[in-house]
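Support request, please re-run this one:
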Amino acid sequence: MTALEDQTAATLAAVARFNAAFDKHDVNGVMAAMTNDCVFENTGPAPDGTRYAGAAAVRQVWDEFFRSNPNARFVAEEQFAAGDHCVVRWRYEWGDGHVRGVDVFRVRDGLVAEKFAYVKG
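Re-run finished. Output below.
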């Protein structure tokens, strides 16, 4: 494998760990998959969403999100990576509704350093 292929494989593995914990609504697992200086950019409010920087701020977002959305479920529709970046096209489902969007991840040292979320509509 080339260095780029190794990095891409490590990126996919890091995003898989993050998503597995997210699917379980496991905040500790999600945070264990992120760097201490992680950044999350939410989908709202429009037009740019809110930016959260640092593990404490991001943890608070996940705590609140899972508490407020006990039926939250993300289904990956497509995923690809190149080097330290990964793009996941998803469908977010709750009760009787859904929305579609994309996450752009950046991975550093086997952990998610950035997660930028975008939504259709």
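Residues 101 and 120 are 6 Å apart (CA to CA). The radius of gyration is 14 Å.
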